[in-house]
């Protein structure tokens, strides 16, 4: 399972494991354990749970960009031409990058040597 990231209300990104409790979303930045015995919970370590804005939660895709930067769902990327931008999304049964302002998409594995993360849809693009 790949880690997730989410944006806190004070504008900081946190990375870890996604957890939803009711309508609140959290990123667990430390491991947590739930132990069971006869249907009763023995322990639940929640020290590393940080609440995040639900719309900003995105999963790591498992590939770095050409600079070694981790790529996450909702990242904005280019694949060599900085005038053509894409958004990383889950499409059908896997991650792809959909061109902004167009319906076309590219396969991330094929373009992995030229992909560069330039921002994400939740914050301004850095170029």
Describe the biggest sheet? 6 strands, antiparallel
At the fold tier of CATH, the topology name of the largest domain is SH3 type barrels
Order of helices and strands: EEEEEEEEEEEEE
Based on CA inertia axes, which overall geometry fits?
A: elongated
Domain count, please report it.
2
Q: Structural class from helices and strands? A: mainly beta
Number of helices: 0
N- and C-termini, Cα separation: 31 Å
Number of strands: 13
As residue ranges, the low-confidence spans are 41-45
Portion of residues within helices: under 10%
Alpha-carbon Rg, integer:
17 Å
**The named CATH superfamily of the largest domain:** YopX-like domains
State the CATH architecture of the largest domain.
Roll
Write a structural description:
The chain is mostly beta strands and 127 residues long. It has two domains: 4-54, no CATH class; 59-120, SH3 type barrels. The protein contains no helices and 13 strands. The protein has strands spanning 4-7, 13-21, 24-28, 34-37, 40-44, 49-52, 58-64, 70-72, 75-78, 86-91, 94-99, 105-107, 116-120. A six-stranded antiparallel β-sheet has the order 6-3-2-1-7-8, with no helix packed on it. A five-stranded antiparallel β-sheet has the order 12-11-10-9-13, with no helix packed on it. The two termini are 31 Å apart. Residues 41-45 have low confidence and may be disordered.
């Amino acid at each position: 399972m790949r880690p997730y990231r989410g944006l806190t209300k004070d504008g900081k990104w946190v990375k870890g494991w996604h957890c939803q409790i009711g309508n609140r979303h959290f990123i667990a930045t430390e491991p947590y354990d739930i132990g069971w015995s006869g249907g009763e919970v023995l322990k639940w370590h929640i020290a590393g749970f940080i609440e995040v804005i639900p719309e900003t939660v995105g999963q790591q895709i498992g590939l770095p960009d050409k600079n070694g930067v981790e790529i996450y769902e909702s990242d904005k990327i280019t694949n060599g031409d900085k005038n053509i931008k894409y958004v990383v999304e889950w499409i059908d049964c896997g991650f792809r990058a959909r061109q902004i302002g167009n319906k076309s998409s590219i396969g991330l594995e094929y373009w992995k040597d030229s992909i560069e993360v330039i921002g994400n849809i939740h914050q301004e693009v850095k170029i």
